[in-house]
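I am still getting used to backbone structure tokens and would like to learn alongside you. Please make up or recall a protein chain and show it to me in full. Would you write everything just below, so we can both look at the same thing?
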Amino acid sequence: MVEGASRHHSLIPGVFLRGVLMGAADIVPGVSGGTMAFITGIYHRLLAAVSAVDPAFAKLVLARRWREAWIYCDGAFLLTLLGGIAVSVFSLARLITHLLETQPLLVWSLFFGLILGSAVTLTRHVDQWSASAVVGLLLAAAVAAGIAFAPDMALPDSSVSFFFAGFVAICAMILPGVSGSFLLVLLGMYERVLTAIETLDLLQILVFAAGAGSGLLVFSRLLNLLLARYHAITLASLTGFLFGSLTVVWPWKLGDEGAMQPAMPGAYAAELGGSQLLPCLALMAVGLALVALLESRWGGLER
């Protein structure tokens, strides 16, 4: 059973707000909802709740022991969190998209501060900084940065591609620092998935959802196992993903569309006529302050 599930029968506004923050992050390619789960201290509980959808849970459902099944998978927590994510996606998607189009430097600066703050915060939660933990951090940072510079590819237009895209995207959303929507762009599936949703192509939507569900169940168990047996190394590696993802959300980028590279603010201003340096630095500071506030409000990471 999910540890401590019996202590969480009531739906608290904090869980809903965490879902809102996760949904807002998932809207933006390059930002992960998993990052927000880490910042707000629910990451371990989220993994435990998802991992609880196992054979024992299935037996309870088949036996129509609904209440026990609900408590077993921490259903109140999951439902409240998903409700916050859904509300955020449907209510904030247009606003964030508009801001990314009209004020991209300011939006990316805020997210840069949030991710940097969460990465620094996570370093304090690594039990022991062994050589293996440092290597894990560096390798994960290199992988996350490499994803940012990876060339786009195109999967064939088939149901298998939709299943694979769902599997990969949901795994990335669990990993802090790796954006599922960004990986869909790299796989050449972002527009296809959006089109399927907009046109209500139920077959492709269901296939994508099946892939996402399968990926969530498999990958959450793997992460739970790693955190249980190799907590310091795993947490250090997840921190590395956050540090590496800073290359994705760096506000000042130059180059052709689809091949943008990070640039210094001065070089950006010289080519495009302005870098909004002071407002951007101010919003980075706001992001850092918000992380500190969220951690102090909700007590940091759950173990």
The longest strand covers residues 253-254. Confidence is low (pLDDT under 50) at residues 1-10. The first helix runs from residue 13 to 27. Residues 47 and 223 are 8 Å apart (CA to CA).
